[in-house]
Design brief:
Largest sheet: none
CATH topology of the largest domain: Four Helix Bundle (Hemerythrin (Met), subunit A)
Order of helices and strands: HHHHHHHHHHHHH
Structural class: mainly alpha
Low-confidence stretches: none
Radius of gyration: 33 Å
Distance between the termini: 46 Å
Helix content: 55-70%
Strand content: under 5%
Mean pLDDT: 83
Number of strands: 0
Shape: elongated
Length: 293
C-alpha cells in the first residue's frame, strides 16, 4: 500500500525538491577543489556547497523506491545520509566525478532503510537476499511481459539469475504479495474477536508452575541431604564437577586438592555411588526422581 503524506508534508517535500533541483551544477575542477578543501581543511562551507549541488541525486534515487509504500521524505533523508557518507569517503585524487561515487552510497542507504522498514519482519540478511528483494518484481515483470505466468520454471530462472535458492524466491514472492497484519485486527466486521484470541499459550498453566516448583524444591532437599553424607573432599568434587555453572576439570581439581587426576576420578565415582544409594533410600516412588517432559 502506497504511503500518502498529509498536505503540509507534501508542500514541504515539494519545496525541498524544488530547492534541490535549482541548486547549480558544479564544474569538475571546482568540485575537486571543494572536495580537497573538505578533506584537508574540514571546510564546512565547501562541504555544504558540494553536498547541496548533488541533493538532486538523492531526490531522483528516492523517487525510484516510492513503490515500497514508505514516506518520500524519509527516503530522501536516508539518501542524504548516504550522500554525507560519500562526501566523507570521497578521494578527489582518483579523477572520479563525485556524482558517480555518491550514487552507490545513496542507493545503499535508501535500500537499507527500505529493508528495515518495509515490514516488521526482517526481509533480507545476505547480499543475495537483498538483491532478490529489490529485483524480484522486475524479473517477474519480464517473464509476465512475454505472456507467461511465474511458474516453477520462472522461479528457477530468477533463482539462477540472482544466485539464490528456488525456495528463497518462493518465500520472497509470498512476502511481497502480502502485508503485515495486526494481531489486534478483528476477524471480521461482524465479530469483536481479535486474531490474537486464537493464539495458543504454550507456557505452563499456574497449577503446573506450582507443582513444578514444589517438585524442584523436594528434589533439591533430597540432594542436599545426600550431600551431607559425603566427606568434605567428596562434596567439593561433586559441587565443582556437577553443580557449578562451569565444569572444573579433573586435573584442575587435583592440583587444588593436592592429589592426582586419577585419584580425583576415583573419588568422584565413589561419591556419585554414595549419592545414588542415599537418594534411593529416601525416595519411595523412583518416578519422582525424573522431571516430566
Amino acid at each position: 500500500m502506497a504511503h500518502i503524506d498529509d498536505p503540509q508534508t507534501q508542500r514541504a517535500n515539494t519545496a525541498y525538491i524544488k530547492t534541490a533541483m535549482d541548486a547549480p551544477m558544479l564544474e569538475k575542477d571546482h568540485e575537486l577543489d571543494l572536495a580537497r578543501r573538505w578533506r584537508d581543511k574540514r571546510d564546512e562551507k565547501a562541504l555544504h556547497e558540494m553536498v547541496s549541488s548533488y541533493t538532486r541525486l538523492v531526490v531522483a534515487m528516492a523517487s525510484k523506491f516510492r513503490n515500497y509504500g514508505l514516506p518520500l521524505g524519509d527516503l530522501i533523508q536516508e539518501g542524504n545520509i548516504g550522500l554525507m557518507q560519500a562526501a566523507e569517503r570521497f578521494d578527489p585524487e582518483r579523477d572520479l566525478r563525485f556524482s558517480t561515487y555518491a550514487t552507490w552510497w545513496i542507493r545503499a542507504a535508501i535500500q537499507d532503510y527500505v529493508l528495515r522498514n518495509w515490514s516488521i519482519v526482517r526481509t533480507g540478511t545476505t547480499a543475495a537476499q537483498k538483491s532478490l528483494f529489490f529485483n524480484l518484481r522486475r524479473l517477474r515483470a519480464q517473464i509476465e511481459k512475454n505472456g507467461k505466468s511465474l511458474d516453477d520454471e520462472g522461479r528457477e530462472f530468477i533463482a539462477n539469475d540472482l544466485g539464490v535458492k528456488t525456495k528463497e524466491v518462493e518465500s520472497m514472492e509470498q512476502r511481497l504479495s502480502g502485508g503485515d497484519s495486526s494481531l489486534n485486527a478483528r476477524l471480521s466486521e461482524e465479530s469483536d474477536e481479535e486474531w490474537q484470541s486464537f493464539l495458543a499459550d504454550e507456557r505452563p498453566n499456574p497449577e503446573e508452575v506450582v507443582v513444578g516448583t514444589k517438585d524442584a524444591q523436594t528434589r533439591s532437599a533430597w540432594l542436599n541431604q545426600a550431600l551431607g553424607g559425603l566427606s568434605d573432599r567428596e562434596q567439593t568434587i561433586i559441587r565443582k564437577r556437577h553443580l557449578g555453572d562451569e565444569v572444573v576439570t579433573l586435573e584442575t581439581l587435583g592440583k587444588g586438592l593436592g592429589i592426582s587426576k586419577e585419584r580425583v576420578r576415583q573419588l568422584e565415582a565413589r561419591a556419585l555411588d554414595k549419592l545414588k544409594t542415599s537418594i534411593n533410600d529416601m525416595v519411595e516412588d523412583k518416578g519422582d526422581l525424573f522431571l516430566e517432559g
